[in-house]
Model the fold of this input.
Amino acid sequence: MNQAPPALDVVDETFLVVPPATVAAVFADPRSWTRYWPDLVLEVYTDRGEKGLRWTVRGALVGTMEVWLEPVLDGTLLHYFLRATPADAAGTPRALAPRDLRREFDRRARAAKAIALGLKEILEDGREPGVPPRGDE
Done:
């Protein structure tokens, strides 16, 4: 039986000048999940340690989500993937009008970038561009 592709396919990348283990620690705590994605219920199906997590998603959306942490130069490239479809209160996928789907995509993409930039601000701790990460000095 063919399953319809997810209605939303959000992809984001943000570079953070901190080691992957530092970023992984943030996402390892399930309490952070409800803070970042309050309308989603996440269940880990792959814990990749310092390389990130993969979740199944329920709640306002049904599908999958991943945070992949790639070591790059003196930091981490935070890759975010959300592949999901809006759902009703019973968790059944529901179709949205094209305009509403674009709004939902935009909302989810902006939220992903806000999470990444918030982590960048906190974890880099005021590090100026071109300056080594704290501890490398």
